[in-house]
């Protein structure tokens, strides 16, 4: 269910093809505080540019969020920006709110103009019929190559009161860190000031969406929106900040893992955990290098226990390591230690590389630094889907 203080509606504008809802509107009738993180890709879509500007203008407040699938409205020039403004202004009129209180995003094909003649007539109806209910229709309407809708929730209880944190996301391809690797919306009915909400969001994103990759490509439209309606009765002193932060982090991690498991052509995942580094930042660099390596990903796809590719990726990460310090295990099976291969039966090695989630544990030294990164194999289905994406 949506948290208290939120309503939603969806509609079909046949943006890419008919037969499915491809527009989604989230309303906050009583207003909500807003925090957001947007793509760092310099070829940035018109709705992202507009939303970034309106976040500043509104000083962290929001009344509505409009998302469409099937068309990214990216690399579309002045006309694309005009279309983004026209749509969000229509939402503002229909919801009786200021234009700067409307956030928006689009997802789909780059370089194609929005079909405004089919989208504009949907806005009024969505605003009028938005209702409190399940988050699932919104999650379905923002899907592109996703094979299933993604949502997660947590409840925080304190002092006889309860609030909820609910999130939904889309993403299956063009997934890589540098904010945010997809489109996600995290909502709560807890009362939070914009700065508090921003802190919870950034902490959650850093340990979830910034720890996954499917193909190494950061989208033109990546965004994570966080909204707090404040509609839940709060205990004296409010809900514990650490409990809310933990709920945001749990919801974001659930969504991030769903995105990896729904990666285009997904067959098995890769979870790389690095320890013993001089600092956490070094551990992350090594983990990310291994999880993003095409050779490692191909080995995982084929269930080939070619663990030398893991060590090779670690060695080129740029982090200083000593081969004699390396300890490598996959799926708990020792593969390399004290500078030499471990005496492990081939059958055990093969089984470790054929697990649904191939877990790589690499100790690189004697430091306290540790981190993780999650990706997936590179399959023929991924290549086929993206070779024929627009045709």
Can you tell me the CATH architecture of the largest domain?
4-Layer Sandwich
Mean pLDDT: 91
Q: pLDDT under 50 segments (min length 5)?
A: none
Residues in β-strands, percent: 25-35%
Q: How many individual helices? A: 11
Oligomer: single chain
- CATH H-level superfamily title of the largest domain: L-amino peptidase D-ALA esterase/amidase
CATH class of the largest domain: Alpha Beta
Largest sheet: 8 strands, mixed
Number of domains: 2
What is the third-level CATH name, the topology of the largest domain? L-amino peptidase D-ALA esterase/amidase
The helix-and-strand class reads: alpha+beta
How is the topology of this model organized?
Layout (H helix, E strand, L loop, with lengths): L6 E5 L11 E16 L7 H13 L2 E11 L5 H19 L6 E8 L6 H14 L6 H6 L8 E9 L2 E10 L12 E6 L5 H13 L16 E6 L12 H21 L7 E9 L2 H13 L1 H8 L6 H8 L11 E4 L2 E5 L2 E2 L4 H8 L3 E7 L5 E8 L3 H8 L4
Parallel strand pairs: 3-4, 7-8, 9-13
Antiparallel strand pairs: 1-2, 2-3, 2-8, 5-6, 6-7, 9-14, 10-11, 10-13, 11-12
Helix pairs in contact: 2-3, 5-6, 7-9
Task: Give a description of the structure.
- By secondary structure, this protein is of the alpha+beta class.
- The protein folds into two domains: 7-261, L-amino peptidase D-ALA esterase/amidase; 269-387, ArgJ beta chain, C-terminal domain (Ubiquitin-like (UB roll), Roll), CATH 3.10.20.
- Helix content is 34%, strand content 27%.
- The protein has helices at 46-58, 77-95, 116-129, 136-141, 194-206, 241-261, 280-292, 294-301, 308-315, 346-353, 380-387; strands at 7-11, 23-38, 61-71, 102-109, 150-158, 161-170, 183-188, 223-228, 269-277, 327-330, 333-337, 340-341, 357-363, 369-376.
- The strands form two sheets. Strands 1, 2, 3, 4, 5, 6, 7 and 8 form an eight-stranded mixed sheet that branches. A six-stranded mixed sheet has the order 12-11-10-13-9-14.
- β7 (183-188), α5 (194-206) and β8 (223-228) form a beta-alpha-beta unit.
- The protein is globular, with a radius of gyration of 22 Å.
- The two termini are 37 Å apart.
- The model has no long low-confidence stretch (mean pLDDT 91).
